[in-house]
Specification:
6 helices, alpha+beta, Jelly Rolls, single chain
Length: 286
């Protein structure tokens, strides 16, 4: 039996009282987890819902897709749900609904969670053969909405996956000395966790599927209206694992150096130009 009662991705709904209760049931487990608050839930939604996602998984990038091919993000593409079929869009709208927010609030203890209607960085994710996503902490500020990022929800879509195929979701301690959690991205497995500036996670092991299959997932991000402009905004912070050949993300370090020495108005202009170049396909860096 699946954890959430979404019986059909087109016509399904979530009961707010039931979702609130489910969140409370798991709160202690979530908050006490190491290396930072998180939970892994198998059989998360009705399988037919995710079967529909696989059936309609995009074959080509949409107008808002970005494909990364660099040392830290190899062969990774995101797809915005707004370009998908009504049934798939309906599923994502359910995850942005008040009942699901109530589940997350009761689970995490974080009140006032806000979904992202623009799916900035969220939606469907695909990492192709040989690709990976290095260990990192996520960006902390949704600039378009001026919100603070708080929670990640990841739902995996990969059938009959084993460790030898790579792509495990890893959670690392805050000193980046020890891998504490490693889970295969199994079909209908959900991982939920806090996204602080030192909540290090990723799937650094390259995809190595014998049938050349890619690693697919759903990514959902949640925010609160608690952003303080006195805080330092940062993009994705990649970290090198000890005793590995993980590459340092020099583009981020250069941006942070410029942010410290360049007047804010000039730095904002620089970042806007860089963002537009990336969106147009002429730039590759975050």
């Amino acid at each position: 039996m699946s954890y959430l009662e979404i019986k059909d991705s087109q016509y399904g709904y979530l009961d707010i009282d039931q979702m609130a209760e489910k969140g409370l049931e798991l709160r202690e487990q979530y908050l006490s987890a190491s290396p930072f608050p998180h939970i892994v839930i198998d059989d998360f939604v009705s399988p037919n819902v995710l079967e529909k996602c696989l059936e309609e998984f995009p074959r080509e990038p949409d107008p808002e897709s970005i494909t990364f091919d660099r040392d830290q993000e190899r062969f990774k593409t995101g797809f915005n749900p707004d370009y998908m079929s009504p049934s798939v869009r309906s599923l994502f709208y359910s995850f942005n609904s008040r009942p699901f927010l109530k589940f997350l609030e009761n689970l995490t203890g974080i009140k006032g969670l806000i979904p992202d209607p623009y799916y900035l960085g969220g939606g469907f994710h695909e990492i192709k053969q040989g690709g990976h996503l290095s260990v990192h902490a996520d960006f902390n500020h949704h600039t378009r909405l001026d919100l603070e990022r708080r929670i990640n929800v990841l739902i995996y879509l990969n059938k009959d996956w084993s460790d030898e195929y790579g792509g495990q979701i890893e959670l690392w301690d805050r000193k980046m000395q020890n891998r504490v959690v490693s889970k295969t991205p199994d079909f209908n497995r959900c991982v939920i966790f806090n996204t602080d500036s030192d909540s290090y996670h990723g799937n650094p092991n390259p995809i190595n599927h014998p049938e050349n299959k890619s690693r697919r997932s759903i990514a959902l991000y949640y925010y609160t209206a608690t952003w303080d402009n006195q805080r330092r905004e940062h993009t994705t912070q990649f970290k090198a694992r000890p005793k590995t050949g993980d590459a340092i993300d020099w583009s981020v370090k250069i941006n942070e150096f410029l942010a410290d020495i360049v007047p804010p108005v000039i730095f904002r202009l620089y970042t806007r130009i860089k963002y537009r170049l990336k969106r147009s396909g002429r730039g590759k860096d975050d």
